[in-house]
Every structure is written in C-alpha cells, then in structure tokens.
Amino acid sequence: MNSFRPDCHPILIGSLPVSDHREAVDMVMQATPRVPVWPQLPVYPQEGMVPQFAPGMPGLKQEDERVYVDLGSDGFETELAAFYEEYLAVTELAAPVEASRFQLGEAYAGGFYELRARVPAMDPAPVALKGQVTGPITFGMGLKDHQGRAVFYDANARDAAVKLLALKAVYQVRAFKVYGCPVIIFQDEPALAGYGSSEMISISADEIAASLGEINDAIHNEGALAGIHVCANTDWGLILATGVDIVNFDTYSYFDRFLLYGDQIKAFVAQGGIIAWGLVPTGSAEALEAATVESLVKQWEDQCRQLTALGIDRDQLLDQSLISPSCGVGSLSLAQARKVLELTREVSAHIRKER
C-alpha cells in the first residue's frame, strides 16, 4: 500500500460545481486519471463539509435544514454508549465497518460510489485512489450542539466526532484497497486557517494535534497514506509534526508563510513526506484568469529553488511532490472549474516532462 510514488502527478481536492455524479467523475478522470478522487458536490446540502460526515454521530438531530447534536437530551448518554459499543466492535474486527454507522451512505456520498464503479475498468490502473474526510477541527467547529455551541468544546462530543471521522476514513480505505493500489485519505481542514484567532483562542495545539493524529493513526493502521489540506495559512510546524504523510496547501498565495518552517520542512521531506503543491489559484477570479501553464511552472520553479536552498535535494523533492489546485472548486463557475482542472493536469504534465 505504501509503494506510492508521487512523481509530480496531479491530484484534486474534491468539490466540483456540477449536479451529476457521473459528470463529476468524468471530470476527475480527464484531469487526474492516475490518482482519481471521489468528488463532492456541494450543490446538494447533504454533501456539505459537515452534513456529509455527520450521520452516525450520537445525539444527531435534524430540524428542517438545521443539523445539530442534542447533548442535553435524556437519551444522549444512552446513544453515546451505543456509539462506543459499535466503535469497539468495528475496531476489534467483531463487526464489518461497511455494515455499521461508519459507512458512507450513497445519499451522502454519491461520488464515492460512482468512482468505485469505474475503477475496475480503468486502463491503465490508477497509481493511487484518493478519498477524504472533513478534518476534526473543521467538523467539530462547524457542527453545533442544541445551544448553538461548537461540539469541539465538549470533551465527550469531540471524542465521538474524532472517532466517527476516523472510522469513516477506515471505511474508505477498506473499500478502495481491494483494487490493489495505494490509498490516500485527506483530512480537509479549512478551519485551521483560523488557528490562533479569537474564534479558536481556547483550542490548544495539543487538542488539535491529538485530534488530527488519531485520524492519521487510523488511516495508517489500514496501510494507507494520510494527507491534510489547509487552504490558507496556519501553523505549519504543528501540521508537519502530526505524523501526516502529505501536506497540501495554497502554494500560490501562502508559500512564503510555509517557507518560515524551513527546518521542519527539511525534516519532513527527509523522512519521506510528500508536498502537494496547491499551484493553481482558486480563491481569486483575477488570479485564475491571469494564470497560464508557463506562469505557474515558473512560480513553482522559483519555489523549488527556495526549498533546495534549505538543503533539500531537488530530485528527492520532485519524487515526493504532487500538483493540485489551491483548494476545491465547488464554489466556482463551471468554466472556472474546468480551467482549474485543465491547468492542474497541464502543469503536472509539463513538470513531469521536463524532469
């Protein structure tokens, strides 16, 4: 499973601005046929970052379009006990994950099922298959309790949320690894861009590291690779120390901030860590309009030189690199999304050709 060679292949983050899962997988296959990802379609509310992975959470309630966890209900403790009983049954292999609350339902993850249906006919076979879960910080801050407070602040609810996400990652690994290629599972963590802000002032680095690390461990225990995607700036020293295999970030806009952690980056690459360069801009319509294959490759070459100046071998760096958009494209127009996917594919192809 860990024989994956990144070799500057292109990958995607996940979200696409279409309403048909077959069309979405067609787009993925055209842009990133060697490392396809199952697509998420935010046009459907149930495929939003929190709702998509919330089913199975103890105390989960829905009123109209509001989804929350009722920590104050009389039955919450009973639901929590049942949750842990099922969690232990799955982790101790007494019950199959695919028949548990930890599976991804087709109504919530149609792209996952559509990609799985395509894999057996892929020729050539994929180099790897990519899945994702919403990271525990983004999930725990986005999912509220009955009083409107983020469940991350409740120790019991936070622990349940982390374990829920960990086994939803495990479910994906077990479903994908039957195809005989490496599996990559990303934790998508946009909320970590706010680490250190007033909104997250009471969340400690230890709590973040423990939450991310538990999910990474679950992925590793299944023989898969663990990645993390943060679409803006964060404490990269904290991220690089979580035991993650792949770090994916907005290289287009935040490389200078990432470079501040030179010693940690050097150690990460030396240990086999993979950098997924978010080269293709998605956050600015003007930047995307101006972007060309030539301009993005030039920017990447400049950034590579800055990393090799730290003492990182260039060939090793290229061996351990992937090329991606800076973030998902689910909020873009279809034309913009198509340009992002085309640039990602072509920038990767140019870099691989010139190696």
Topology readout:
Blueprint: E1 9-10, H1 21-31, E2 60-63, E3 66-69, H2 76-91, H3 110-118, E4 129-134, H4 136-142, E5 144-145, H5 155-176, E6 183-188, H6 205-221, E7 225-230, H7 236-240, E8 246-249, H8 251-258, H9 262-270, E9 274-280, H10 285-290, H11 293-308, H12 314-319, E10 321-325, H13 334-354
Parallel strand pairs: 1-10, 3-5, 4-6, 6-7, 7-8, 8-9, 9-10
Antiparallel strand pairs: 2-3
Helix pairs in contact: 1-3, 2-5, 5-6, 11-13
Structural description of this entry:
- By secondary structure, the protein is an alpha/beta fold.
- It has one domain: TIM Barrel.
- The protein is built from 13 helices and 10 strands.
- α11 packs across α13.
- The model has no long low-confidence stretch (mean pLDDT about 95).
Could you provide a short overview of the structure?
The chain has 355 residues and is α/β, with parallel strands linked by helices. The chain has helices at residues 21-31, 76-91, 110-118, 136-142, 155-176, 205-221, 236-240, 251-258, 262-270, 285-290, 293-308, 314-319, 334-354; strands at residues 9-10, 60-63, 66-69, 129-134, 144-145, 183-188, 225-230, 246-249, 274-280, 321-325.
Question: What are the salient characteristics of this protein?
Answer:
globular; alpha/beta; 355 residues; TIM Barrel; 3-stranded mixed beta sheet
Number of self-contained structural domains: 1
What order do the strands of the largest sheet run in, or round the barrel if closed? 1-10-9-8-7-6-4
Question: What general form does the structure show?
Answer: globular
Q: Could you describe the largest sheet, including whether it forms a barrel?
A: 7 strands, parallel
Number of helices: 13
State the share of residues found in helices, binned by percent: 40-55%
